[in-house]
Amino acid sequence: MSSPIAIVGMSCRYPDADSVEQLFENSLAQRRAFRRIPEVRLQGAGYFDESGKAPDRSYSQQAAVLKGFEFDRERFRVSKSSFDVTDLTHWLALTVAGETIESIRFRKAGAEPDRRATRVVVGNTLTGEFSRSNLMRLRWPYVRGVVARHLRDESPCLDDAEHARLLRELEIRYKQPFPVPNEDFLAGGLANTIAGRICNHFDFNGGGYTVDGACSSSLLAVTDACAALACGDSDMALAGGVDLSLDPFELVGFSRTSALARKEMLVYDQHSEGFWPGEGCGFVALMRYEDALEKCEQIHGVIHGWGISSDGKGGLTRPESEGQMLALDRAYQRAGYGIESVGYFEGHGTGTKVGDTAELGALITARARSGEPMNPAMISSIKANIGHTKAAAGLAGLLRATKCLEEQILPPTTACRQPHTIFEDKQDNLATSARLSEWEPGKFARRAGISAMGFGGINTHLTVEEAPGPARKTVAVGAIDSEVRARLATFQDAELFLFAGVDRAEIAATVAHVASFASACSRAELTDLAVELAVRADRDAGSAWRAAVVAAAPVELGQKLELLSREISEAGDDCLKLVPDDGVFLSSGGAIGEIGLVFPGQGAPAPADGGIHGRRFDEIRETYRIAGLGSFEDHEQTDYRQPAITAASLCGLKMLQRIGVEGDVGFGHSLGELSALHWAGCYSAAELLKIARVRGKATVEDTDTSGAMVAIAAGREQTVAAIDEQQNIFVANINSPQQTVVSGGRSEIKSLIAKLRREGVAATMLDVRQAFHTPAMDGISGRMGAMLAGIHFRQPKRKIISTVSGLSLIHISEPTRPR
């Protein structure tokens, strides 16, 4: 067992986070800093190819980037000539290291770190993109040779003087963006001098060096610093990591290994497909625990154990569970407590299928094999918020985990919509969480584990325990306003953008303005933009022109705003344009249409819970609780699907009611007519669920109802002609002039599908097990009648339209066709 190490100072610069507090708060709010890589960093047209086929380009141009960092040369007494030729990683690391020192709260006024016994360890890989870019200046002779040969081959008529003039002018243009090498050029382009520069500025004599363990670098720096403190080689240590490397070398390299996400970065999710890169810097100040108690007023957390391992023959780029478990074993052996006592894991979480599976498998196995009673643990990864910051990634995880301990809060697992299948039946071991929660005291002290893995098969793990001390000063989760807590509990998968204007010109100008920067926004900024637009639209609620756009990503918003701009230019002065498929809505001249609600039948999705809305809204969770869907094992059978679909319809009504939408007319498709009758006031929500359960049960128990249904891409006449000679097949639904649904015996339906496909007609078997809307269903009416005898049916209070007759159930004497 080693000496415990105290964290006495912390600071950082990560995307959208200029402090540890911002980093922590953004993660609680599930804010995501991803955006299209700005043109000032890389020009998209030349470096990216979405198809992924171009060998020299990256297929993804999404990343989380730093904004607004400016190095204070005057504060750090750095000349312009030195600044210009030095990679920005040096200046970022120096700035954050200085802030970390300033964050230490010494008991003695004016006290400072003992410069003779302070060590600096920095994690970094390949310095940064700026020094790699600057090296292009030194490659001019090669470029000149290629261009000269090309000019000779393609333009042999050029005389020597003209040839030389062109090359001289090209050389000036080529070298112009890059600084002229000087005496600081070499030191400014090396990774090993990053730590040395910090030691140089603060006059630290305890040793300073850089470690490169790929994506484990910053956590390796911390473990190295802890070891130095534990054995007495130093009395204080600054440990951290810095990474600024969004350049073609890494982006193309990761693309060739298929490590980058194409559509979305998801972490610990069934559909994880890779990561998006990030950048940043973080540092911690460390002391031996007993020294920190004596000299410092504040201890953020206590490091008790750390472990390092390699995957051996497992591979250079493919993580292995066995190697990771070695690091876990070594960390907790050193800590003196078991991994089963840890309540929170800040995971590596790259979002690759192989990486997530290996990491989760290692943690679950290591916890299970301890044989001791376990604290159920939760896992998350800060990478889902700020991207994979590579050499600085482990430090970001350590900062977030330490804040979780300090504030006694468990964060949500951002970007995990459908948790990895490995979590199934493992909830008492390890799980994700859709919402933040208070970290309640348990059998063990609050403890966190932090993991980082990297190319070359390196694995690191570190475990931190809450620091004993006075009660928390921040507000507990339970005291947060319920609406705010609900917002923090939800992964926002899309935003609603509202616009208003007194006339066409005003709303067009607003849309054009937003479109001019929408594609460059980060995902977090989309939320901010949506709120700002909603406030403005509410202020201008009486405007004659109104519009709305639904979008989930910046590029999507930009595209939809272009579509909205065209709709505005072409719209009349009194029109209503609703295009749900495009997510674009427009109203001019104060036009207001009636709202029709369509309640779906059995072909609709049948979720077992409320999903994202259930995580956010109590009434949705309560509806699914009452529905009692957890008792069903077969989620494809009708006795489950009918109450499940009905519960989803009820929840849809509740969500509409929250925003004040009641609807003017209702339609029900098949099973959906039961929901439509409830909406109209014929019976309560509880009675609707009972009817749906009875209907589903009665359908399944009557074996005569079994059969199949098929959707045919043809009108009614063509469909009837195709089944004219068939037995036990019936037209069930006329969905549109181009689609008809047929129902009947399963073998007959399969034969019909084969016949239609031979004739070139598209036919899709529906996911049902009964021959709905046929005489096969006649037998269940008596059974249902007896089961429903106790329900009182009331007259409808709202207009609903029968999809059989087209008549209104309120105004039977005056037939009304649905609009």
In a few lines, what is going on in this structure?
This protein is of the alpha/beta class. It is 39% helix and 17% strand.
Notable characteristics:
disordered C terminus, 819 residues, 26 strands, four-stranded antiparallel beta sheet, eleven-stranded mixed beta sheet
Mean pLDDT metric: 90
Give the fraction of residues assigned to helices: 25-40%
Can you tell me the residue ranges where pLDDT is under 50 for at least 5 consecutive residues? 811-819
> Biggest sheet, in brief?
11 strands, mixed
Estimated radius of gyration: 32 Å
Shape: globular
The neighbouring-strand order within the major sheet is: 5-4-6-7-1-8-15-14-9-10-12
End-to-end C-alpha gap:
76 Å
> What percentage of amino acids are in beta strands?
15-25%
- How many runs of DSSP E, i.e. beta strands? 26
Counting helices, strands and paired strands, the structural category is: alpha/beta
| Distinct helical segment count | 29
Structural commentary:
The structure is a single chain. With 819 residues, the chain is α/β, with parallel strands linked by helices. It is built from 29 helices and 26 strands. The strands form six sheets. Strands 5-4-6-7-1-8-15-14-9-10-12 form an eleven-stranded mixed sheet, sandwiched between helices. A four-stranded antiparallel sheet has the order 16-17-19-18. A four-stranded antiparallel sheet has the order 23-24-22-25, with helices on one face. The longest helix is centred in the C-terminal third of the chain and has 21 residues, at 638-658. Residues 811-819 have low confidence and may be disordered.
